[in-house]
Task: inverse folding
């Protein structure tokens, strides 16, 4: 029997409530900024907008996308809001919706975000022609959590050095899981988990914690290893952040639960606790310590204000405790990563 | 340093105003209020709050707090020609040179102890994520309490009530951290002042729309963005009335001003803050007058003094930089029609994602109604990056192009 084509619904941010898409029978498809499409986004957006956004727009202009029923944007930053504006001017682009994302996670913010998720649910229903009910949403949350558990298990394998291909292969698996319907994604992750343990431990290379936002190219992760940087933990938007568990509790309102889970997971540069400003720096420091790293590399796309403005605080916190930090700004291509090779090698050498 | 600067500025302006024989240029009154605000911020006589641009300054004023958005400081540093040194300080501390220079100048000034220490900080999600991040960093730097206003994208659903509740919470936050209570009578008085200011602004802008416009390129530079800092006070009312009355007087004498207005221009977003001759160049050499700035408009309704929080919320949501680009372009098109604009100038401030980011969409939106846009590429705060010759060449070409076009309004 032929498999019907998936009802792909695009998304671009790790804060997207993916189970809502799945509950409507859609398959979340992360529009990654990986493309051979020519640079055309500058027609609509300024060159000072982050390359993540520009590459996504280039893909839409160049029709370098699978057929999408719709596209979900999250108001996570100025650039993402401008992408939503530009997307709707692209001929043939899928219908789109922008949901607003509070910067904090207090009760009123959670209630507001729950309302936005409700609005998203109604929109996605209209795109997919199917209604979402409580049981469908619960099942979608369960499936999402199954994927998260697999990703978590796979990450443990990579950290232990027992998965052939290491971080590069994990990133490829994450990309696949973010762009493939649930069953196929699960099958692939299970396949990887079923592989016999490899022995990739390279104790001589210094352990490094990787954090930042958008770095989906598996070859970039291979480059870190080739430069002598042994990644022992990560926190990236295109890495494990997309696959964080969502609380499930049959007694609570589903959208509220989703909102609380997304807003209250470990903070990135986009969300913060107003009662503890600059907390992100301590969070990064804690993560570095937990991972056993000797230093940290932050990779952020160029022009990303939420990260770039907060990085001095992170650097200060790490330096205070003796952890060097290397900041790399990239444009979502391996070309820019290649230019960083010498810096990564020097950083790894310094940590030996 | 800042206190001395503002004190001398106030003294100088007062002297000039006294010597003007009753015919005071309202721009001088505007500068005087800027100086007085700066002096209050530095004086230590009342609690200071560093805020985002869309904070409810009239509410804070009614509670006895001297408040300002941080970009005000960035602009002042640029005006006084010292922003570069503070930007360098910020860059050396690790701030990216691709970031907004308003915020980098402020971060540098804070790290050097130049900025008055705040009692608390109020971040806002509108207009930009960079500004909110800067406020968070300042709160960390000063170890002072921070609260954040999440400004929804529009007024749909329960958005107004959501923001109104945040503003109520803000009032409680202010009391908790300063001991200053919210006095409903003082708030009512402040809101009434805001409404009087609003009414005078509406009349003033209506006058500025006339052909020829009574406004020169310099008259209302930064006015729409800075005036909210004075809202709630008598001074704001007097200032708006002074502009209205002066414009009415000029309109009555319009034959003498007609010659200088070959082209009517609209300035998009904020002006270039450091001293340069662009406005003079446009006016003197090309008779091209900036008759309106994007933020020189009243986009909000009168606020009900009995239900102030809802009105304050609506005002914050209404700002043209909030929401989708369609909304912003519609507003620019409205201004272009009202002011019969021949062309628009966008400085494209480097480092501004929310404003400059959609440059192409703004240009397309205005060209739809026949208004061409000159996109400059400048840093509005860092004068070291300003290349006068290049700007002049672009301006000359733009004006030449305008000469070859018929007005979109004939």
Result:
């Amino acid at each position: 029997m032929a498999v019907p084509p998936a009802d792909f619904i695009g998304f671009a941010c790790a804060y997207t409530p993916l189970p809502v898409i799945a509950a409507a029978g859609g398959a979340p498809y992360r529009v990654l900024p990986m493309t051979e499409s020519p640079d055309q986004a500058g027609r609509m957006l300024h060159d000072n907008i982050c390359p993540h956004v520009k590459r996504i727009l280039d893909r839409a202009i160049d029709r370098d996308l699978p057929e999408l029923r719709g596209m979900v944007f999250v108001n996570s930053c100025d650039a993402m809001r401008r992408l939503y504006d530009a997307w709707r001017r692209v001929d043939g682009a899928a219908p789109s919706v922008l949901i607003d994302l509070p910067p904090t996670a207090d009760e009123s913010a959670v209630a507001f975000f729950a309302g936005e998720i409700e609005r998203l649910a109604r929109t996605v229903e209209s795109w997919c022609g199917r209604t979402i009910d409580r049981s469908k949403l619960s099942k979608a949350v369960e499936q999402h959590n199954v994927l998260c558990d697999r990703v978590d298990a796979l990450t443990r394998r990579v950290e232990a050095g027992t998965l052939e291909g290491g971080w590069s292969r994990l990133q490829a698996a994450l990309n696949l899981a973010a762009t493939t319907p649930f069953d196929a994604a699960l099958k692939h992750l299970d396949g990887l988990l079923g592989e016999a343990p490899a022995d990739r431990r390279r104790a001589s290379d210094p352990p490094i914690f990787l954090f930042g936002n958008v770095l989906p190219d598996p070859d970039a992760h291979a480059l870190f290893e080739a430069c002598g940087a042994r990644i022992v933990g990560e926190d990236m938007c295109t890495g494990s952040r997309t696959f964080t568990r969502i609380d499930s509790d049959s007694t609570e309102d589903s959208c509220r639960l989703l909102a609380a889970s997304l807003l209250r997971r470990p903070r990135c540069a986009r969300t913060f606790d107003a009662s503890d400003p600059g907390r992100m720096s301590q969070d990064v420091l804690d993560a570095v310590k937990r991972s056993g790293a000797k230093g940290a590399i932050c990779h952020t796309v160029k022009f990303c204000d939420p990260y770039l403005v907060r990085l001095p605080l992170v650097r200060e916190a790490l330096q205070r405790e003796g952890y060097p930090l290397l900041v790399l700004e990239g444009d979502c291509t391996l070309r820019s990563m290649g230019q960083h090779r010498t810096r990564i090698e020097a950083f790894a050498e310094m940590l030996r | 340093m800042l206190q001395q600067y503002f004190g001398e500025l106030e003294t100088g302006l007062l002297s000039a105003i006294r010597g003007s024989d009753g015919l005071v240029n309202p721009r001088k009154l505007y500068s005087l209020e800027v100086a007085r605000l700066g002096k209050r911020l530095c004086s230590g006589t009342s609690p200071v709050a560093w805020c985002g641009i869309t904070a409810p300054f009239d509410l804070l004023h009614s509670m006895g707090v001297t408040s300002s958005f941080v970009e005000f400081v960035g602009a002042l540093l640029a005006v006084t020609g010292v922003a570069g040194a503070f930007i360098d300080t910020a860059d050396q501390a690790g701030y990216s040179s691709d970031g907004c220079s308003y915020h980098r100048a402020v971060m540098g000034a804070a790290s050097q102890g130049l900025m008055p220490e705040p009692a608390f900080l109020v971040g806002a999600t509108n207009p930009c994520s960079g500004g909110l991040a800067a406020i968070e960093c300042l709160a960390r730097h000063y170890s002072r309490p921070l609260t954040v206003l999440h400004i929804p994208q529009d007024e749909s659903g329960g958005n107004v009530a959501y923001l109104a509740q945040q503003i109520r919470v803000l009032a409680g936050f202010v009391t908790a951290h300063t001991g200053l209570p919210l006095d409903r009578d003082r708030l009512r008085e402040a809101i009434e002042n805001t409404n009087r200011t609003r009414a005078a602004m509406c009349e003033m802008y209506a006058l500025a729309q006339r052909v020829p416009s009574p406004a020169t390129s310099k008259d209302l530079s930064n006015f729409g963005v800075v005036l909210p800092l004075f809202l709630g006070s008598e001074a704001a009312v007097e200032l708006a009335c002074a502009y209205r009355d002066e414009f009415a007087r000029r309109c009555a004498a319009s034959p003498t001003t007609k010659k200088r207005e070959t082209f009517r221009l609209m300035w998009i977003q904020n002006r270039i803050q450091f001293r340069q001759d662009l406005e003079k160049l446009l006016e003197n050499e090309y008779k091209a007058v900036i008759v309106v700035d994007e933020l020189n408009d009243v986009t909000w309704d009168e606020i009900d003094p009995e239900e102030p929080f809802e009105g304050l919320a609506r005002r914050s949501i209404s700002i043209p930089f909030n929401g989708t680009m369609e909304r912003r372009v519609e507003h620019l098109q409205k201004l272009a029609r009202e002011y019969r604009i021949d062309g628009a100038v966008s400085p494209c401030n480097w480092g501004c994602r929310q404003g400059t980011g959609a440059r192409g969409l703004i240009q397309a939106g205005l060209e739809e109604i026949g208004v061409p846009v000159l996109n400059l590429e400048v840093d509005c705060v860092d004068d070291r990056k300003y290349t006068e010759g290049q700007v002049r060449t672009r301006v000359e070409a733009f004006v030449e192009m305008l000469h070859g076009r018929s007005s979109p309004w004939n």
The first helix of chain B runs from residue 2 to 18. Chain B has two domains: 2-182, 186-403. Residues 150 and 315 of chain B are 13 Å apart (CA to CA).
